Amino acid sequence: RDLRPGGVLKLTVAVMPGAYVRTAGQVHIRTAEGETPVQVKQRLAEAGVAWGPPHEQAAEAAISARLVFRGMVLHDEVPLSKQGVADGSSLRLIPSLGRGRL
C-alpha cells in the first residue's frame, strides 16, 4: 500500500443497478490518492454515469450519488487515502436517497 503524496490509485467503481453508463456496470479510473470522493464523482459524471432514462437524466445524478467503500459511505470532502482507499480498491456508486441528499 503506497501512501506517498502524489501517489496514483487505480480504482474500480461498480455502478449500481438503474444507472446508464457507457461501460458495462464497472468503471476503471486512475486518481490521485489526495482526491476526494466529490472529485471522483465529478469525473464519473464527465464519463457519462447517470441514472434514469436518457431523456430524463440529471447531470448531477452521479455527483449527488454516494460512494461506498467496505460497506461505509465515504465522506465527500475527506481524501480517499484518509478513508482507507488504496490502490486496487473497489468502490460502489449508489444513487442518492432523495433530492439534495448524499
Overview of this structure, please?
This protein is α+β, with helices and mostly antiparallel strands. The protein has a single domain (8-94), classed as Phosphatidylinositol 3-kinase Catalytic Subunit, Chain A, domain 1 (Ubiquitin-like (UB roll), Roll). It contains 2 helices and 7 strands, in the order βββαβαβββ. The chain has helices spanning 37-46, 61-64, and strands at 8-15, 19-20, 26-32, 50-51, 66-69, 72-73, 90-94. It has a 5-stranded mixed sheet with strand order 3-1-7-5-6. Strands 2-4 form a two-stranded antiparallel ribbon. A hairpin with a 2-residue loop joins β5 (66-69) and β6 (72-73). The protein is globular. The chain starts with 7 loop residues before the first strand and ends in an 8-residue tail after the last strand.
Jot down its keywords.
two-stranded antiparallel sheet, Ubiquitin-like (UB roll), five-stranded mixed sheet, alpha+beta, 102 residues
Gist?
This is Ubiquitin-like domain-containing protein. Residues 9-100 form the Ubiquitin-like domain. With 102 residues, this protein is of the alpha+beta class.
CATH superfamily: Phosphatidylinositol 3-kinase Catalytic Subunit, Chain A, domain 1
Shape: globular
Helix run count? 2
Radius of gyration: 13 Å
User: Which sheet architecture does the biggest sheet show?
Assistant: 5 strands, mixed
Average pLDDT, rounded to a whole number, is 77
Chain-wise SSE layout:
Layout: E1 8-15, E2 19-20, E3 26-32, H1 37-46, E4 50-51, H2 61-64, E5 66-69, E6 72-73, E7 90-94
Parallel strand pairs: 1-7
Antiparallel strand pairs: 1-3, 2-4, 5-6, 5-7
Protein name: Ubiquitin-like domain-containing protein
Organism: Alexandrium andersonii
Domain Ubiquitin-like: 9-100
